Amino acid sequence: MKTQRLLLNGLGNVGRRFLELLRDRGTLLRDAYGIDFRLVGAVDSRGALYDPAGLDPARLVAWKLEGRSVAELPGGEAGQAATCLLKHGEADLVLEAAPTNFWNGQPGLDVALKALAAGLPVVMASKGPLVLAFEELAALSDWRDPRKPALRFSGAVGGALPSVNLGRRDLAGAKILKLEGVLNLCCPLILADLERGLSMDEAITRAQALGLLETDPSLDIDGHDAAAKLVILAQAVLNQPARMADVCREGIRGVTPERMAEVRARGRRLVMLARAEREGEAFRLSVGPTELELDHPLARLEGDAAGIVYDTDIQGRQACFTYGQGPMGTAAAMLRDALEIAQKG
Ligand SMILES: NC(=O)c1ccc[n+]([C@@H]2O[C@H](COP(=O)([O-])OP(=O)(O)OC[C@H]3O[C@@H](n4cnc5c(N)ncnc54)[C@H](OP(=O)(O)O)[C@@H]3O)[C@@H](O)[C@H]2O)c1
Predict the structure, then answer these.
(1) pLDDT tens-digit map of 24-46
(2) Any idea which of 84-88, 250-254, 281-285 has the lowest mean pLDDT?
(3) Whether the CB of 181 sits within 6 Å of ligand 1
(4) Does 156 contact ligand 1 (Cβ within 6 A)?
(5) What residues contact 341, with CB distance under 8 A and at least 6 apart?
C-alpha cells in the first residue's frame, strides 16, 4: 500500500466534491489501486488547516457546507495561504482548485510554481495559470523533463471530458489535422433555449438561475472561457505556443432565435465551436458560433454537454463527449490525475 499525502487548495464546488470522493472511495482506491490518499492540508480563502496525521474529509465537507472556513477548526490558521503550507514539505501531491482568473493567474499560479520548484507534483483544475504561464509550468515539470515533478490538469478543459488525455496520450504518433470542441457548458444550453424561441436575455437568466454561468457571464457568453480552454489545448496537445489574444473570438450575444431557426431550416445547427485548423505547420485558433452539418458529432450535443473531435492522419476521427457532469466531473478528473501520478511515482 502506498500512502500519498495531499494538500488541497480551494474547497468550493470542485474542492468539496474532491473531499467527497476521498470520503466515499477510500476503500476502492486502496483495494483497486493500492493507493491510500491521506489529506494532510486544506486551504480556503480565509486560511488553512494542516495535520500530518491526516484530516477527516467528511468533517471538512460538512464544515464547508455550513459556509465555515477551515481556519476556524482546531489547529486552523487564519490568513495562512497554501504557499506557506508548502514550507512544511510534508505533502506528496498538491491539488489546486481555487478560483481562476485570466489576468494574473493567482492564487493558483504561485501555488503551482512553488510546489513544482519544491519538487512536488501538481494537479490543477484552474485554467488561469495554464493560460498565462504554461511554458513556465511546463519547464518546471515532467512536460519538458521526465525527471521533474508531474503536472496534470485533465479537469481544466471540460471537467471529466478527457480532451487533454485523448489528444496527448491516445493520439501519440498521429498528426492532428483539426481540433473542434464544444468546451463551454453554458453556451449550448443558451443556444438550445434560443432554438426553443426564448430571447437571449431570457436564456441568460435561465442559465444563471441554474447556477451554470460564471459570476461574470461575459466569460461564458463572449467566449473567453472557451478561448482559454482552446489556448490550453493548443499548448498541451498541439504543441503550439498560444495566448488569449491569438484566438479569433466571437461570442453568442448577437445570436437570435430567428437565426437559430433559419440555420435549422437549412438542415444545419449553430454551435459555439472552439476550433484549431491547420494553416501550414501552425494552427489557426478560433471560437464562435459556427454552422455544422447535422451529421457532425458536435451538432448532436444537447443540454449541458461538452465534446471534442480530433481529425488525424492515421487515426481518423476521434471524438468524445460528456453529459451533465457539473463540478463532480472536474473533481473526478482531479482524482484520475492524482491516481496516475501516485501510480507512477
Ligand atoms: N465548477 C466547475 O465545474 C469547474 C470546471 C472546470 C474547472 N473549474 C475550475 O476549478 C476551480 C474551482 O472552481 P469552483 O467552482 O470550485 O470555485 P468556487 O466554488 O468559487 O470555490 C473556490 C474555492 O477556493 C477558495 N479560495 C478563494 N480564494 C482563495 C485563495 N486565495 N487561496 C485558497 N483558496 C481560495 C474558496 O474559499 P471559500 O470556501 O472560503 O470561499 C473556495 O473554497 C476554478 O479555477 C474553476 O475555474 C471548475
Answers:
(1) 999 999 999 999 999 999 999 99
(2) 84-88
(3) no
(4) yes
(5) 93, 121, 123, 150, 152
